[in-house]
Structures are given as structure tokens and as C-alpha cells.
């Protein structure tokens, strides 16, 4: 059994985060504040808590932001190194591209946008017990079509890998955490785009490699869409999703330093109020994610929505299941409902967008 301290972790953070636009126009998805901290902090803290010490971040889109924030990783008790793809190489290409930084024979690879509670040591134990070439953490979800569907046989051996299949044969999916034997990474073609899901895993199965699943029922969520991001952030605030980076005691809301909440404002449903943000009297925030310096004025209602940095939400506005970009200015009584995405800096006049007919 390898000691976790001798295992390298690789985190893939080079995606464009398209489904979280416009927030990802200014910050890469893994850096978006989630329960008040860049999402990646929660994942890195879990890796550190598992005893892994050396982490390589595979970056591409907005690569500099990661090193600027995490530096050497010392604050998290980690040694973090960075490898940047000038052009995105895909998930498999991204893993291959960090090979020169790897020191161990067993490597844990993580998608950088998954909020999860699985016991990483147990995934490693499965890898060793099965004498696997690759072990995939697998979970069951209600709708597997948005993920990689991964059926296994009675011994836990992976029998197929079907990425984003329209008609998946099982609800068991790739949870975005793998254990690789180093020699498998060495065999990934270098210097070109490679998808680990569409190319590497299917080729390994065809070649008869030992690919196993580690299935569990721990908390799991991909944070890639606004709905999931809001839910994941709220679950972190309420303690439903664990994070070693947050205080142990958690409640219905989390208010960061320098934020102002007027008396009579109601904060529920895992609402987070970022640094320097302001909430006016009588506002009702249910599952709201307020980034730094956002301002929600008196009597406004925010439900399951993300409010970007420095954005203003005017008095009595209603924001429900929406994403409001950085620095937008939403006038009084505006109504922005399901699926609305307001681009950064956009200004909407008082009463300028409504779903109801009263004035
Ligand atoms: N370095 C690098 N280079 N990283 C990349 C690249 C790239 O070209 N493309 C994507 N990534 C990173 C993203 O930043 C993200 O952290 C991770 O790889 C996965 O990419 P997503 O775009 O979030 O993929 P997905 O959510 O549609 O599907 C993946 O995750 C699911 C579980 O959450 C797949 O691995 C599915 O099989 C899996 O079920
Ligand atoms: Mg994803």
C-alpha cells in the first residue's frame, strides 16, 4: 500500500467553464467563490486532509490566476506546481502534459469542478486491492446523460465508458476522480488534444487493461452549471457538503467579514454574503450566492441565484434561478427569472424587465 504522502495529485483546471458564463468570463470556474472561497480551495483542502502533499495543477484558460492565488501552496500545507497548456489539450492531454512533474508511480487525478465527500484513501485501497491499472471513482445519479456512464461487472471491473451517452445503460457515472498507474499516463500520446473520457478509457478497455470502479454513495456534485453551483455552495454553507477549509459549525447562512446585513433582512437556504457585500432592510435571500462587494437593496428577493462582484440589485427586485454578472446594475422592481444570465456591467432601468403586469 503506497503511503498517501508519496502520491502525486493532478487537478485538471483548464476548462473554459462555458456553462457558467458570464461569471467565467472574468474568473476560471475552479476560482469562483463557493461558500466564500475559490472552489478549488475546498478540493485542495480535501487532498491535503487525505495526506497527499504534492499537487500539480494542469491549467490552460486564465492560467495565471491559479498561481497568483495559491502560490507555492504552503498556506494549505501543500506543495503546488503549475503546468500550462498554451492551447487546451483536453482532459487526457492535460494529464499527459504534467508527466515531467510527477514523482510517484501512483497518481490521483481530479476534475477541478467536483464537490465530493468520498474517502480518497478508500479509492486508493480499491486500486491496490484490485491490482488495477486505473481505478475510477463512480457514483449513481438521477440523470446520467450529462456525464460519463461507466458500467461495471460483479467484480467491479469497468466494462465500458460512454461519455455523454443519450441513452445510458446504467445510472452509474464517472465521478471525475481517478487513480492512474504512472505507466498508463506515459502511454497517452503527447503534444496533441486527447480526451481521457472519449479516447484513453475506451482504448484501455479495448486493450484489456485492468480498469476498476470504486463505487460509493458519498456526497457528490459537479459544479459546472448555475443550478449545481448554487446548490453546491448552499450545501457547503449548511454543512451538507463537507469542506476542511470551512469552520465545522455551519448554519443557514455564512456572512464574510466586512459585509453589512441590515436588521430585518432574512438570510436562509445556505445563503453566502461575500466580503464587503451589503444587504438592505427587508431583503429576503434564499440560497443566494453574493460575491464580494455585491449590494442587494431594501425589499429585494434573491432565490437560488448568483450575484457577481460589485453588482447592485435595486429595491424590491426579484432574482430567481438567475446569474447576474460582475458589476451589473439591476433597477428597482426588475424581475429576472429562471435561466436569465445578465452580462457584466449591464444596466437595467427601474422596472425595466418584468414578468407581471402591475406597475
Ligand atoms: N488542463 C485541462 N485542459 N483541463 C481541462 C481541459 C483541458 O483542455 N478541458 C477540461 N478540463 C478540466 C475542466 O476544467 C474540469 O475541471 C475538468 O477538466 C472536467 O471538464 P468539464 O468540462 O467540467 O467536463 P464535464 O463535467 O462535462 O464531464 C467530466 O466530468 C464528469 C463528472 O463531473 C467528464 O469527466 C465526465 O465523464 C464526468 O462524468
Ligand atoms: Mg464538470
Automatic annotation (TrEMBL):
This is NDP-sugar synthase. CDD domains: NTP_transferase (cd04181). Residues 9-236 form the Nucleotidyl transferase domain. It comes from the Bacteria. Pfam families: GMPPB_C, NTP_transferase. Residues 251-348 form the Mannose-1-phosphate guanyltransferase C-terminal domain. Belongs to the transferase hexapeptide repeat family.
